[in-house]
Structures are given as C-alpha cells and as structure tokens.
Amino acid sequence: MSIHPSSVISKEAEIGKDVVIGPFCVVKGRAKIGDGTILESHVSLGNETGIVEVGKNNRISSGAAVGGPPQDLSYKGEPTKLIVGDNNVIREFATLNCGTAKGGGVTKIGSNCLIMAYSHIAHDCHLGNHVVIANTTQLAGHVFFDDHVKVGGICAFNQFVRIGKHAFIAGDSAVHKDVLPFTIAQGKYAVMRTPNKIGMERAGYSKEDVDAIKTAVRIITMGEGTLEERITRIQNECASTPTVQYFLDFTRASITGPRGLAL
Q1: DSSP assignment letter at 204
Q2: Which residues are identified as catalytic?
Q3: Per residue in 61-110, pLDDT tens?
Q4: Which of 5, 61, 71, 180 qualifies as a FRET site for 258, CA 20 to 30 Å off?
C-alpha cells in the first residue's frame, strides 16, 4: 500500500493490499478500496454519510468524484451506497453518485467498464459488466445498462431508461426511451435504427442468433400491428434460442415499463 502524504484518508476507510493513493486525494467516510486499486491524484472518494465500496484493480483518474451524495432533493443523509466492481477505468472528472433511499439505496457499477472523462452516473443507476461510456455522457437517476453496452460521446439519458446488452448508442444522442438489446440507436430523440450485427459477431454469437435478431429487430421497428402482435410474429418466425428469448423478455418489460420503446 502506498499513500501520498498530501492525501487525506478517513479513519473509517478500509484500504486493501497494493492500493496506490496518489497526491491530493481525499477518501471520506466509510469507504472500502479493494486490492490493487489506484487513485491517481486529486480524487475524491466517498462522502460523510454514504457507503462506498470499490473493488479490486480499478484505476481512477485525476479529478474524479466517486461516491458523492446523490443530487436529489429527497436525500436527507441516509447511508446509501455506491458499489463498484473490479478492473474498471474511471477517467478524469467523472462523477459517480450514491443511491437514494427511495430508489433502492444503491448505485452499482459492474466490472471491466470504461467510464470516460466528464461523464456522470447519477443516483440509483445500475451498469452491467464491460460497459463503455465515452466522454461527457450524462446518466440521470435510475438508468439501467445491461452488459456490453457501448455509448458514444456527449449522450444524455433520461431517468428510468433501460438499455439492453450489446446495444450501441451513437454519439450526440438523447435517449428518453428504452433501447432493445443488440440494436443501434441514434438521434434526438434516439430511435433504434438497425441490429448491432458487427457487435454480435465480435462477441461470438452464432449466425443463427445474428440472423434471428436481425429478423426480430426488423419486425419490432418496421412491422405492422401492435407491439404484442409483433412479438407473436417473432415467436413464430425466429429461432427459439436463449438470445431471442432474452430479446423478447426485454421487449415485454419495456412495453409495460415507464418509458416504452425508442421507436
């Protein structure tokens, strides 16, 4: 463990093995930093009332604020949490806030994620594993990203939006509705435009899955009839695989959810 003498560390903090805390960092309150994690310099981690748990082998760049209190008027100092997994990179001046009591109390970041400079992850957001968020992207509260979501720069996400796994959000998009897994969305407001065929192939999905999702996306985005009727068409016309079933389950949840689908 290496802590620069200019940094200030809470007496309540738990610091793991081989942690490096560079100059002018501040670790507040009940913070837990896992083995091998690096705070480069001028990092603020934790807050006086919340609980921040950062896993192993993360790298947090200069000026990042990790685990600050939620930017929500309902917050009254409850001991809510931010939980960060392993092997993440959090770049300069990114901000990640703790949850709120009314939102479940936890903001959660998975493992192997890249959160680029000046991005904001608000209270009660949940990010899966292998998520990439490009510079200055802003997530409002209660946003859900499944695994392997990729987001271009300067994007904005409304509260309660859900993004399915292996979705790609093109840069400079404003997202106010759910984006289905395995799709590419773009625009202000963003709409789903095409299946993420290249992303699926790179991730190792079979040709059967790629072809089935291509058909399913075309039916949802361009088909006639109600969304329920389009779901029935997918069940009849597409191979019955776990990938297609996940796509259908996500679609059903979005139809009845607070935001609806980005069509």
Answers
A1: T
A2: 123-124, 141
A3: 999 999 999 999 999 999 999 999 999 999 999 999 999 999 999 999 99
A4: 71
